[in-house]
Q: What sequence folds into this?
């Protein structure tokens, strides 16, 4: 009888162990699903905040005055093989955080010099709003993309009416600078599915450098 009881307890313990593993897997799956379902969440790559790059570049050295690196992307942002990086820096707030208020983030471009070291070459404090400026959707910062000779910054927010802005900048070798090449602004009513979007190119935007670009000067996209 003791042998049978011991065997029964072992079987029950085995089932409990499998149940715990299954529950843990379901919780993790639910968390991943919730993150990917958020259209403004950064892609779940596991290294959204990247503090080290190739050749052990210390990107944190560019986050001064207590700022933290909200996101970073490495790539050939000038399209000439030198390589570089784009950072989104989140500054320290010196006052109590209130909804819709706070310091804007700073987007910084880093480029390799002749010695192969990254150096800061340009920045913009107009692209990415504060962490509480996205309304009910939360943090408005979405993600970045870096491809050969250009990069894109995506933000979004809202409540019933969800908005997204996508800004793309391309490197112009003759000017040794990045200029806005495309802007896509979109708003969607989540209840009625009505939507409106505006695509702006160089013809509409003009020759505006990355450091001088201000989305606040663009026309708003609103639903009728």
A:
């Amino acid at each position: 009888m003791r042998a049978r009881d011991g065997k029964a307890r072992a079987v029950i313990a085995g089932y409990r162990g499998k149940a715990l593993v299954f529950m843990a897997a379901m919780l993790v799956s639910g968390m991943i699903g919730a993150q990917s379902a958020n259209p403004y969440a950064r892609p779940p790559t596991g290294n959204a905040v990247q503090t080290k790059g190739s050749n052990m570049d210390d990107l944190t050295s560019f986050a001064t005055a207590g700022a933290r690196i909200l996101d970073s992307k490495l790539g050939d942002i000038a399209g000439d093989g030198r390589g570089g990086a784009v950072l989104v820096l989140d500054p320290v707030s010196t006052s109590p955080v209130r909804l819709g208020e706070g310091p804007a983030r700073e987007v910084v471009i880093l480029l390799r010099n002749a010695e192969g070291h990254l150096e800061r070459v340009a920045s913009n404090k107009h692209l990415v709003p504060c962490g509480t400026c996205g309304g009910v959707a939360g943090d408005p910062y979405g993600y970045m993309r870096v491809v050969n000779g250009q990069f894109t910054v995506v933000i979004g927010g809202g409540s019933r009416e969800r908005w997204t802005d996508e800004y793309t900048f391309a490197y112009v070798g003759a000017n040794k600078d990045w200029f806005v090449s495309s802007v896509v602004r979109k708003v969607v009513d989540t209840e009625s599915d009505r939507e409106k979007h505006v695509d702006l190119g160089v013809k509409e935007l003009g020759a505006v450098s990355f450091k001088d670009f201000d989305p606040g000067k663009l026309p708003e996209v609103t639903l009728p």
Q: What stands out?
A: DSSP finds two helices and nine strands in the chain. The longest strand covers residues 177-189. Confidence is low (pLDDT under 50) at residues 1-38, 44-55.
